Hints:
Elements: H1 3-15, E1 16-27, E2 30-41, E3 45-49, H2 56-63, E4 73-81, E5 84-85, H3 93-99, E6 100-103, H4 114-124, H5 131-144, H6 148-151, H7 164-176, E7 182-186, H8 194-207, E8 212-216, H9 220-226, E9 229-234, E10 237-243, H10 244-249, H11 254-260
Parallel strand pairs: 3-8, 3-9, 6-7, 7-8
Antiparallel strand pairs: 1-2, 1-4, 4-5, 9-10
Amino acid sequence: MTAQTAAASLADRRLAKVSSRDVNVFYGEKHALKHVDLDIRANEVTALIGPSGCGKSTYLRCINRMNDLIENCQVTGSLSLDGDDVYDKKVDVVQLRARVGMVFQKPNPFPKSIYDNVAYGPRIHGMARDQAELDEVVMSSLERAGLLAEVKDRLEEPGTGLSGGQQQRLCIARAIAVSPEVILMDEPCSALDPIATAKVEELIDELRENFTIVIVTHSMQQAARVSQRTAFFHLGELVEVGDTEQIFTNPQHPLTQGYITGRFG
C-alpha cells in the first residue's frame, strides 16, 4: 500500500458511517465472503457491483444482520455502524434494523392499505404519540418517496394494487418512515420498467441528502448514474473500491477493467 493509498484509506475510515474489517461469511462449508475491508461514507450512495454470486448481496445483508435468518450462516470479522459493533451480543437486532432499513429486489408491500404500509414501522416502534403525529409521518414519508401526489386520495386502498414502480416507492416510504440512518437497496429496480427505474433513481439521488445509501446493482450504467462510490466484488472478494468516476474511467485492477469493459460477468 502506498503512502497516498494509506492516507486515503484513513480518511475514508474517519468519514465512514459503516466500517468493515476482515469480514468473512460462511454458508456451512462455503466461504462466500472473504476478508472484506470496506468503509461506507455518510450521505453518499455506494454501489456494489460484480458478477452474479460474487458476494454483493451477502455483504449487504451483513450490515443489518439479515444473514442471521439464514441457517448455517456464520459471520466473522468486525462491522460497525458509527463505531458501534453491529454484531455485539448486546445489540437489539430490531432496533438495528430500524437504523438500517432495507428495500428488496422485488417490491413487497404488506397486504394492507397504502397508509398502513407506511404507518406499520412507526406504530411498532412507538414513534408517534397520537394519530395526528402518525398522519404526519405517513404523509411526509410518502412525499419524500415521491409518491404522495399519486396516492393521496387512495390511502385506504391496498398497497398491492399499485403499479410495480409505485409499489417499490411505497416500500421506500415504508423504510424511511422509521427515520433510518442507512438504507440498503438490493437490486431495487431490476423488476421495474425504464420509466419507473428513472423515478427510483431520481429518488435515490434526493434521499442521500438525509440518508446513507448502499445499493447492489447488476447495471453498471445505474451504478454510474446514482453513486458517488463504487465497490467491485469478484468471487467473494472486494477487488477494488473508489470514487465512481475513477472506477469506471481508470480502474486500478485488471479484474475491474475486465468487468467494466464486458470481458466477463
